[in-house]
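Summary of Year 1 activities. Much of the first year was spent building the evaluation harness for sequence design. The harness presents a backbone, in tokenized form, and records the residue chosen at every position. We chose the following record to illustrate the format because it has been used consistently in internal testing since the harness was completed.
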């Protein structure tokens, strides 16, 4: 990236979001993180906000505050929660909560940044979705809302293309983050078995996904919009097995 840009990252305090934030500030780019917690590190180029993005009013307020304080050029909608349950135990309330977190929060944050992006005729919007959008056991609420992300991203891509704003999706497979270990015990036989079922022979890292997001954020990627890139080691082709 040539010009110094400002990237807003939801969930920039941990996991994929943190890896991306560190990558960007190392390149001399400004980062704004918003999540349940502030990052446990500081940098002159890092601004941090705390908000519960599953709460509509809290999200609306923080979006307006960030919009006033920062000229946001790029948005990475990364914050997410899994809430796994097989169908007999699945709750409609989980769908509503994840719809706000995965869809409503990105909408409010993007709306707050949109006028500035349009006036500068530059914008990069990247959603972090999931291979689970294709279907995965115990993921009723999660896969439904992540699949919704794909539809919303493609719609925005069409609406915003003439303004110099691209909208794309990175859909990770199994990535070693706290979200992953919240479902799969760390270092367990289940984790090892899952790694063996990935065609490339390993589970993904935070940096794998951050690298893919960086491609979509690049100023030279202005001819790529409305796309879903699976960063999944091949599991979008064959699934994850039992």
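For this record, the design step produced the sequence shown next.
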């Amino acid at each position: 990236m040539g010009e110094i840009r400002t990237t807003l990252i939801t969930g920039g305090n941990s996991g994929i979001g943190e890896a991306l934030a560190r990558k960007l500030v190392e390149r001399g780019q400004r980062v704004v993180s918003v999540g349940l917690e502030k990052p446990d590190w500081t940098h002159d180029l890092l601004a941090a906000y705390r908000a519960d993005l599953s709460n509509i009013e809290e999200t609306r307020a923080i979006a307006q505050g960030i919009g006033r304080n920062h000229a946001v050029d790029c948005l990475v909608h990364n914050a997410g929660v899994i809430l796994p349950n097989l169908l007999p135990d699945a709750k409609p309330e989980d769908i509503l909560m994840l719809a706000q977190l995965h869809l409503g929060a990105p909408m409010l944050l993007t709306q707050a940044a949109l006028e500035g992006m349009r006036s500068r005729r530059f914008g990069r919007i990247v959603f972090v979705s999931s291979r689970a959008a294709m279907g995965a056991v115990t993921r009723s609420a999660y896969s439904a809302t992540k699949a919704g992300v794909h539809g919303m991203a493609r719609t925005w891509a069409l609406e915003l293309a003439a303004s110099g704003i691209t909208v794309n999706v990175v859909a990770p497979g199994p990535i070693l983050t706290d979200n992953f270990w919240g479902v799969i015990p760390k270092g367990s036989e289940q984790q090892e078995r899952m790694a063996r079922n990935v065609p490339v022979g390993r589970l993904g890292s935070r940096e794998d996904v951050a690298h893919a997001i960086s491609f979509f954020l690049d100023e030279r990627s202005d001819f790529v919009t409305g796309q879903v890139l699976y960063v999944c080691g091949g599991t979008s082709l064959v699934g994850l097995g039992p």
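The longest strand covers residues 165-172. Quantitative recovery figures across the full test set are reported in Table 2.
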